[in-house]
Amino acid sequence: MTGEEIKSTLKTYNLQSWSKQKNINPISIKKAEGIYLWDYDDNRYTDMSSQLVNLNVGFGNKEINNAIKEQVDQFCFVAPSYGAESRAKLAKKIIELMPDTMGKVFFTNAGAESNENAVKIARLFTGKSKIFSRYRSYHGSSFGAGNLTGEPRRYTLEPGIPGFVKFFDPYVYREAIDFPSEEDATKYYLHKLREQIQYEGPDSVAAIVLETITGSNGVIIPPKGYLPGVRALCDEYNILMICDEVMTGWGRTGKMFGFENFDVKPDIVTFAKGVTCGYVPLGGNLIY
């Protein structure tokens, strides 16, 4: 097919996500390598976003390509009740990268699924039902993860699932209050979060879910002391701290995981994207 034929066929038969369909004009890609993509007219484009913030090693990585081919020749899939060398090696390697509070990996297919499983684990472990997450967050668009999400992409899921409670993240740059310091901002936001926990009933709150650094809603870095303060509130009220590292994991913040920049140890970490750099679908939960 030519590039124009591909574009025409896509526009006719494919519902393209996050796009108004009427005037959509996708670029047909013929090849890709490293950080570059080429269309069918041999125009070269630079990928400035790592696709969906996931292609950490770029296109066409030979080591990953060869590993996928080797696995396909052995078998493409085996049920979780069976042992697979690749699954065992990856689980061990991931746990070795984590702090000593993490003991096992539960593998999933994607980030949204990881976040939904984190909610289920928190509710089962604590026996409590309410889940706190932030308004400017994005945790996925499936029904459970979409209820965790705090930004407008959740609207189509509403009225949604009972028990999901939203609170504001510390967006100091756009706050109406002029704080003298980051520490003062942290004190204010933690006080409001404590107050909200108390009004929701600490005995009903199972988990607080946070993107370690807010991703698609502004790349909002928490002020000094904020994440340790959330950790302290979770410890005080027997609430699990869940860090969504789908975007920030696997080296995207200068550390292997974003939470390592803030001297905290979450109870559950969710991941996807960079763990395979988009070469195959994979996500997971890291738990104690």
How does this structure look, described?
This protein has helices spanning 3-13, 50-53, 62-74, 85-97, 111-126, 143-148, 182-200, 226-237; strands at residues 29-33, 36-39, 44-46, 104-108, 130-134, 164-167, 205-211, 240-244, 268-271, 283-287. With 288 residues, the chain is of the alpha/beta class. The protein has two domains: 3-48, no CATH class; 85-287, Aspartate Aminotransferase, domain 2. A seven-stranded mixed β-sheet has the order 4-10-9-8-7-5-6, with helices on both faces. Helix 7 runs parallel beside helix 8. The longest helix is centred in the middle third of the chain and has 19 residues, at 182-200. It is globular, with a radius of gyration of 21 Å. The termini are far apart.
CATH fourth-tier homologous superfamily of the largest domain: Type I PLP-dependent aspartate aminotransferase-like (Major domain)
Query: Which stretches are poorly predicted, pLDDT < 50 over at least 5 residues?
Result: none
Any idea what the shape is? globular
* Strand elements, count: 10
Helix content: 25-40%
CATH structural class of the largest domain: Alpha Beta
The secondary-structure element order is HEEEHHHEHEHEHEHEEE
Number of helices: 8
At CATH level 2, the architecture of the largest domain is 3-Layer(aba) Sandwich
Write the CATH fold name of the largest domain. Aspartate Aminotransferase, domain 2
Distance between the termini: 50 Å
Question: In the residues, how many domains can be counted?
Answer: 2
**Rg:** 21 Å
SSE class: alpha/beta
- Describe the strand arrangement of the main beta sheet, using strand numbers: 4-10-9-8-7-5-6
User: Largest sheet at a glance?
Assistant: 7 strands, mixed
The whole-number mean of residue pLDDT values reads 95
How much beta, percentage-wise? 15-25%
